[in-house]
Every structure is written in C-alpha cells, then in structure tokens.
Amino acid sequence: MEDYEVGMLVGEGSFGKVFQGRRKFSSQVVALKYIPKHGKSEKDLRNLRQEIEIQRKLDHPNIIVLLDAFETHNEFCLVTELAQGELFEILEADGSLPEIEVQNVAKQMIRALHYLHSNKIIHRDMKPQNILIGPDRQLKLCDFGFARAMTQQTLTLTSVKGTPLYMAPELVQEQPYNHTVDLWSLGVILYELFRGEPPFYTNNIIALVGQIVKDPVKWPSGMSPDFKSFLKGLLVKDPQRRLTWPRLAEHAFI
C-alpha cells in the first residue's frame, strides 16, 4: 500500500469504503476499495479472494480494471481504475433514459457479458449500481463479489447470489441456472432505464418472487419494435427459451 496516496472518500456501503487515490511517483488516479474483514465468515473471505482472482484475469474495455490487490490482517484493498459515476446515479437524477441511450447501454453490456460468458464466468449480480461510467461515456461492469467461474464439470450452478429485484425466475426459485441469469438481469436493467422502474417491483420479497415467477411483463408504450423484441427475448421466464448467444449478439437492436 505504500505505493499509493489515499485521497478523498468517494463511496461508502455495506462492503466498506472507496477512496480516490494516486499511484505515487505518477499521475495515475485510482480507486481504493477497502473491505474490512471484521464480521465476515470464512466463506465470505473465500468469496472475496475468489472475486480478486476472477477480476485479475479480466481484460475488456467494458469491465473495470483491477490494477492491484492487497490483503492485511484486518482488511482487503482493491485498486481499480477510477470511474466518473454510476449508471444508477443517472437513473436517480433523470428518472428514465431515452431509447437511444438505453441502446448504448445495451450494446456495451452485451460486449462485456459476451466476454465473461465466453470465459465461462457468470456475473450473478447485474444491477445499475454495478455499471460504472468511465471516460467518453464508456460503461464499465464492476463488483465481481458474486461472480463464479464455471468449469466444464459445473456448467449449471445452484447457489443463490445477487439482488432479488434483478434475479431471474430460476434463481428466486433456487433452481439450477447458467449464464442466462445475467441476460435476464440485463433485460430488467434496460426495462428500468426506459420505464423508470423495473418490470416487477414491490417491497414485499415474497410478493416480488411471485411476480418474477408468474406475472407477465407489462410493456410500456413508446418502444421501438426492435427494442421490444430484444427485451421480449431476454425477459423469458423459461431459461431454455431465453435469447442467448450467438443470436443475442446478432439482434437488430444490438
């Protein structure tokens, strides 16, 4: 850590704190994410180490770059490139986005997910808070705390991770799942960006699960045919029928 100078606090959450920093003897500005070990189980610590190992290997313009990582007796510190904001902040400020902006998000996140899935990695926690904004409006997928590397022997997973609002039906029902859970989550995000609220929303988690599993999507007016077709492909409750690779990348909306 002696290689970095810690600056102002730029973010804080249940995970810990994020500071702006600078690599000493250079002009490189970075984000320093401090995650305390206190209160975390051995499984939590293993998951954190797994996040670090997964992120070390990733190299894609739409995925946040992990520059360095340290572990001390009391905490972890992840050093990443510094983003300029979150997609969630834009959604909070503006309420919704025009379709052309939603399409830009879709194109960039499809590139990020294609890279992950091609490398047999499922993100499992897609949400607006985990999509950061870099220079020149380049979007960066971050937070691989729930990500899971898949081997040939484990192409279907069963452990439940992620944010319920964006979870696929098979996840909330604790059924086996694969990479298409990320594609459902992307569909929810794009719908929310356009409409201003996700397709299924309630503060009651039991009712939310029921909606995700059973209720049809209510399609807002004003969507282009290509956008609606794209979302209809992603927001299919049966994962076997959900739009996926390679047809996904060939869709007219992308």
Helix content: 25-40%
Total beta strand runs: 10
CATH homologous superfamily classification of the largest domain: Transferase(Phosphotransferase) domain 1
Q: Tell me, what's the shape?
A: globular
Count of discrete structural domains:
2
Radius of gyration, in angstroms, nearest whole number: 18 Å
Assign the CATH topology of the largest domain: Transferase(Phosphotransferase), domain 1
- Low-confidence segments, given as residue ranges, are none
Overall mean confidence score, pLDDT: 91
How would you write the strand order of the largest sheet? 1-2-3-5-4
- What separation lies between the terminal Cα atoms? 42 Å
Largest sheet: 5 strands, antiparallel
H/E element sequence: EEEHEEEHHEEEEHHHH
Structural class estimated from helices and strands:
alpha+beta
CATH class assignment of the largest domain: Mainly Alpha
Number of helices: 7
Describe it for me?
- It comes from Guillardia theta (strain CCMP2712) (Cryptophyte).
- The structure is a single chain.
- This protein has seven helices and ten strands.
- The strands form three sheets. It has a five-stranded antiparallel sheet, covered by helices on one side. A three-stranded antiparallel sheet has the order 6-8-9. It has a two-stranded antiparallel sheet with strand order 7-10.
- The chain has two domains: 78 residues, Phosphorylase Kinase, domain 1; 165 residues, Transferase(Phosphotransferase), domain 1 (Orthogonal Bundle).
- It is globular and about 55 Å long.
- A hairpin with a 3-residue loop joins strand 4 and strand 5.
- The protein is an alpha+beta fold and 254 residues long.
